[in-house]
Amino acid sequence: MLAKSLVISIGIGVIAGFIFGVYLIDVKITSQLVFVDGPSISVVTEKSDFKIGEGISVKIVNSGTVPLTYSDSTYDLRITGLSGILMFSPVVDKENLSSSLEPGEEINFSWNQVKNDGDTALEGLYKISAKGIDDQGNVIEKSTTVTIWK
User: Fold this and answer.
1) Fewest CB within 10 angstroms: 75, 88, 112, 128, which?
2) Predicted pLDDT of residue 1
């Protein structure tokens, strides 16, 4: 027969694990797209966990009520490691040197997990960020993180 203290400890551990798991699921599932009054930008992915080699679709949305302008056609999209080292940024379209997003408008990018230097991204956490400039010259930036798994 098991000791009473062992049964109590295991029971508390199972209950604590369940409660912590439910809490983490609620924290992990957060809305990336929130519309606000004023300048705002949102970076949205279809999910937060990806397998190695799986395409990652990134949507940049002007989630505010003010038009946003960009210096080039990449919409200042950057994918970095958590250390800040640049892994990927789209190629600039020479024909469209400046771009803008009206309120509610969106632009889609796709990343095949290949870095700018041609190497495949390793598993880990990556930060996807975009920034724009509002009508008063303020820089508006937003980011999200994704995880690449084996």
Assistant:
1) 112
2) 64
